Amino acid sequence: MKKQVLSLLMAGVMAFSLMGCTSSGNNGPQSASTKQQETSAKDSSKQVSKTVSAGNKVGISMPTKTLERWNRDGSYLENKFKEAGHEVLITYSDNKIDQQVKDIEGLIADNVNLLIVAAIDGESLSQVLNQAKEKNIPVVAYDRLIMNTDAISYYISFDNYKVGTIQGEFIKNKLDLDNAGDKKYNIELTCGDPADNNAKFFFGGAIDVLKPYIDKGILVVPSGQTEFEQCGTAQWDTSKALSRFQNILGSYYSDGKVLDAALCSNDSTALGVTQALSSDYAGTNEVIITGQDGDEPNLANIIDGKQSMTVYKAVANEAIATLSLGEAILKGETVDASLIEKAKWSFEASYNTESYDNGTGKIPSFLLVPVAVTKENIQKELIDTGYYTMGSDGYPHPVN
Ligand code: GAL
User: At what angle do helices 126-134 and 97-109 cross, to 10 degrees?
Assistant: First the structure.
């Protein structure tokens, strides 16, 4: 025990001595231009990329490469920690829960000093994270809260409830629901993976905006699927969202009923819904479709008028914030709201000790701020900020 504490302290001292070369302050969006490190192409724990350096050893466990954003998260995190002089071991678990457990076990066996974990299934990591706790390895829940374990020190994410309210408000404003008079609009709801704690927050934020209009009969859900449990999409899988929506269109819209809006919790599900509309919907109106993440195909759809908006979360900044948080933990500092001041982030974030209870208590959280992106502000929010470049094909492409 004593030895572990000592080695943690030593690691902290080493991290502290490296602080001079960290870049957590004042380099928000422009960090998006950081060059991508070479990482392995496949989802497998075997493709661990290692760089030996003088700092701490940081283990990063990402869910999968099959959903676009996690590739960006993984590469930003890897680059940020490496630039700050740490050794990085990163794994992607192919959206397989067992694989992620094995990957985290491997990182623990490799004696990482810090674990950063974006869970596939928030409920399935308690046991493996107990092993981390036993070895005094601090764990940061990255983007998705990890449930039922007290091995988590902190949670870093975006304001997930706000993501949902932005989507709900977008639909409300587009349809001008407050001035609907006698008009009625049809809407369908597509949520995320029920195993992902975030999914409930996204749905909760959106439904809190939309429910009063559903209750008044201004918004009608012809499928009747208004509960989170009915609208879920396992693993946020595009093809699952596609087939569910084809069923809805076949069952409730084949009589020529007009669909006005489709609430989709993120871009991978929005992609499935958009595909279902193009193959199975008879209407000619422009259906309002929401999303989240700024995935490449979805941004192309926004340019082409096939998706209305996406909620963009600057994962480059999430990586910067994670570096500041991780280094503060490694230094043994008491981490609280003051980190935001000290780190001098160039982006907005809040410290929240109320919203995220993982079943063992409230987990102190750092929450960044998501923004709505439409065709009108793509240039300002995504290109001018340096996160994406506008390709010669007329579509935005991520920079990292
Ligand atoms: C969520 C995440 C979203 C979205 C989704 C699918 O946890 O917050 O941004 O990417 O997973 O990967």
Answer: 10
Break the chain into its structural domains and give their ranges: 21-158+314-368, 161-292
Residues 6+ apart with CB under 8 A from 272: 190, 233, 237, 238, 239, 240, 241, 242, 243, 244, 245
Q: What is the pTM of this model?
A: 0.87
Cβ of 266 less than 6 Å from ligand 1:
yes
In words, the CATH class of domain 161-292 is: alpha beta
Helix, strand, coil % in the chain, rounded to nearest 5: 45, 15, 40
For 230-248, how does the pLDDT look when each residue is reduced to its tens digit (9 = 90+)? 999 999 999 999 999 999 9
Same fold across 21-158+314-368 and 161-292? yes
For residues 178 and 140, the answer to whether their CB atoms sit within 8 Å is no
Pocket test for ligand 1, best of 159, 198, 271 (most atoms within 8 A of CB): 198
What is the tens place of the pLDDT at every residue in 167-191?
Answer: 999 999 999 999 999 999 999 999 9
Looking at ligand 1, which residue's alpha carbon is closest to its atom 4?
A: 266
From residue 372, alpha-carbon distances to 314, 377, 400 in Å are: 11, 9, 21
